[in-house]
Amino acid sequence: xxxxxxxxGTYCAAILAGYTTEESLSIAYCANFVDFCTRSQLVRIxxxxxxxxxxxxxxxxxxxxxxxxxxxxxxxxxSFHFLPGDLHATRRGCGRRYLNKYRLICNPNGELAAATxxxxxxxxxxxxxxxxxVLADTWAHRYFAGTPSLVxxxxxxxxxxLLPGENGFTRRQIRFMHNPAAEDDPETGRYNCSVxxxxxxxxxxxxxxxAGHLPDYSWIRYIYLPAWGEFRELLxxxxxxxxxxxxxxxxxxxxxRGDYEDFQTARYDTEKVDPLAxxxxxxxxxxxxxxxxxxxxxxxKLSGVPIPDFDIETHQAExxxxxxxxxxxxxxxxxxKAALAQKSMVTGHIFQSGNRLAGFSVDYRKKGxxxxxxxxxxxxxxxxxxx
Length: 387
Known about the structure:
2 domains; four-stranded antiparallel beta sheet; 16 helices; 387 residues; two-stranded parallel ribbon; 7% strand
C-alpha cells in the first residue's frame, strides 16, 4: 500500500476506533514510517541498524545474494510488508528449498497476523501503528513473498486488468516497462516494474517488484498466472481487498483499545465502517496514483481538525537530542523497540517452523528482552555492515 492508505487511511481507522486526534496521528505516523525506517535513515539518527523496517532501492541494489544478505532481506520484508500466511503449508512434488519459499507467501488472516496484533497489545501507539501497516499489507501484497524468488514472484505477459463498464468487466492486457523516470499510466495500461533477472535470488525478484506498484493501487482488479499456482488464473480484486483491510484495521484498533478481550482473524468492523462504506468505496475505486487528498478529506471530516502532511522529520529531533536512556522513551525510541519486537517475533516463528530463510532467532520475550540494545545480539553487526 502507499502513503495515502498507510497514513491518512490509518488515521481514519484510528478515529473510527475511538482514539483521539493526537493518538490517531501518532498511530498513522508510525504506520507510514515503517516504509521509511531504513538502515540509511537509522544511520542518520544514530539508531540501531537491526531495527530497520524497510530498505532503500540503493540498499537493495547493493545487497548481495549471499546467505547473510538474503536472510537480512527476508527478515525485513517478511516481518513488515509480506507477512507469511501459512508457515506450515504443504505442497506435493517440491523440494525443501522451494517449499520454504512457498511458505513465505503473504496472505491475510494467518497465525502471524493474529500474533502481530496481539504483540502490540498494551505496547503503546507506536506498536499499534506498526501492526496496522503489517495488517494492511497482508491484503495489498497477498500472493507475493518477502524473499527474493523468481519462481514465487515472477510475472509474465499474461497479466490483465479488469476494467469496469456498463455491461460488466472487460480485460485489457497490462504492459510492463522499466523506466524509473516515467510514471505509471492507468489510462493506457502501462506500468513500471523491476528488470527481469533469471537469478532466483536476485533482489529484482523480491515481493511484487515484477508486478510494479499494481498491488499498491486500491482501484485495480487484475488477473495473472503465478507459477506457484500451477499457472492457473488468479484474480486480485483490490477494491474488495482494501475494504477488508480497512474494516480489519478498525476492528484490530478497537481490540488494542480494549473494546474486545481477544483478537480473532477473519473478523471485520461493520458497526463503525458501514455508515461510511459508500464514501470509502468511492475513494478506493477512483483511478488515481495518489488518493491522499481523498483520505485526508475523510479524516478531517471524521475528526473535525486538520491533518498535517506526513513529515519524516517530525519526531527526529526529540530522539536525536535525547541521551541514551531517555531516547528509548521518545516516540521514535518506542517505535524502534516495537519494530525490534515485531521482527524478533516473525523471525522466531519462521525459524521455529524449520525454515532458515530469515536466519536464526532468539525469543527475547522469554530470554529477557529489555530494549533496543538487547536485540543487537540477534545479528552479527559486522556481517550486516559488510552488505
